[in-house]
Structure formats: structure tokens, C-alpha cells
Amino acid sequence: MSQPITVVLVHGAFAESSSWNGVLAALAGRGVPAIATPNQLRSVTTDADNVRRAVGSIDGPVLLVGHSYGGAVITEAAVGAENVVGLVYVAAFAPEHGETSLGLTDKFPGSTLGETVRPIPLGDGTNDLIVDREIFPSQFAGDVPLADAQLAGATQRAIRDFALGEPQPAETPAWKTLPSWFVFGSGDKNIPVEGLRFMAERAGSRKTVEIDGASHSVMVSNPDAVADLITEALSHLS
């Protein structure tokens, strides 16, 4: 490719763009152009539209990277986005048409996320959801320094419950037409590791990296390993 590939990072539920800071720093050190785009966490459809517009504003090819619910978003956002050349899933959902993030969470036993979520009614029959801030470090980021995990819990963005229960819209999800790579930790308490393995295998992952003991916040605790996989994906796409 004549133009460099820009990496676009999409955060997931109960997180925000600064969760990518370590990965952004690692990529910058390797000369890789990268941005973290906001994710409003309202619905798969609207969140994907927002990411698609961000991707469309970039002159040149794009590698989309999603964490957690952000995986569902990039799976949808890449559909019809002609400059997206690949997908990297970081402890992320890679849904089939009609599947939901909640359904994939419960497909295999082991998630304890439901016990930690607290609703905030929005007045329209839906709720914003947050992870209990006291429990957030152990649930979401058990291998992140406690002070950092507490800050992440305090700055987490709420996700609308509709987004987690919305069936994946596209009849042909992007992982069926684009190459994909997966990285996740064996200590993930949000998405059972069996579910993450299942999605990686189903998507035909070019390479799957499983980090022993890493939490759901694998991009925070292991930014270099995540950056390594992104860099490897770029080398195959360039």
C-alpha cells in the first residue's frame, strides 16, 4: 500500500478512550499512526455510524481495533467502509448477525459481570449501566495497579442496556470478509475465555494471543503485547 495504515482504536463499555493510552504510546514509539475515537455506548447501530464517519474522515487505509463491546461496534462499522482493511479484537465481542453482546457473554459459563452492574434509569424504559465503582478494580482490571484501576472505575462511561442487547445488524458481519486478529487474557471476568476462544476460531483469526492471567483490561495491563499484535497485523496488511 502506498499510504500508511492508520490504526483506529474503539473503547468498550465501562471504559473511555484513555484506556488506550498505553497502546497509543507503544504504537507511537514504533512510528505507527493511531487515534482513539470516542464511542458513545448508546446502540450498536448509532455507535457504528459514529465510528464509520471517523473512519471516513481518514485519508488512506484503516485497521480497526475494538475492545469489549467495541468489538461489536467495529464489526458493524467496517461494513461498507471501503478503507477498512482489517480488524483486531481486544478481549472483544465478534458477533454473528442477530447475536447480542449479552448473549455472547452468557454463551459460556464464568462471567461475573452481571453481579457488579448497577442501573441508572433513563426515563424511557432503558437504563444506563455502570460497574459498581468499589468492585470495578477486581472485576474489570485485576492485573492493573489498584490506584489506576480505581481511577478507571471513577471515569468509566455508562453504557445503555439497549446497546448490549441489540442484535448485530449486518447480515454479513465484517469478520467474514476482512482478516482479523484476537488478543485476550485467561483471567477475563467479563467475557469467559471459552467465549473469546470461540469467537476467534469462528472468525478465522489470523493469530490469537492469549495472555496468561490477564484481565478484561488487557490493553491497560499489557499494552506492549496488544501493540505487538497490531503491529503484526499491519505487517501482513501492508
Automatic annotation (TrEMBL):
Say yes or no: keyword Hydrolase present. yes
Family matches, as Pfam families: Abhydrolase_6
Q: Where is the AB hydrolase-1 domain?
A: 7-228
GO molecular function term, any single one: hydrolase activity
Question: What keywords does the record list, in alphabetical order?
Answer: Hydrolase
Q: Which InterPro entries match?
A: AB_hydrolase_1, AB_hydrolase_fold, Sec-Metab_Biosynth_Hydrolase
Protein name per UniProt: Alpha/beta hydrolase
Q: Which organism is it from?
A: Agromyces atrinae
